[in-house]
Amino acid sequence: MSYSCRVVLVDDHAVVRAGIKLLIELTERYDVVGEASSGEAAVERVDALKPELVVMDIRMPGMDGITATRRITTRNPDVRVLVLTAYDEPEYVEAAIEAGAMGCLSKRRARSDLVGALDMVAAGRMTFPAHVVGMLSKARNASRSRAGGWDSLSERERDVLYLTATGYTAEEIARRIHLAPKTVANYRMSLKSKLGVQSRVDLMRAVVESGHLA
Question: Which residues does residue 104 pair with via DSSP β-bridges, in sequence order?
Answer without folding.
Answer: 83
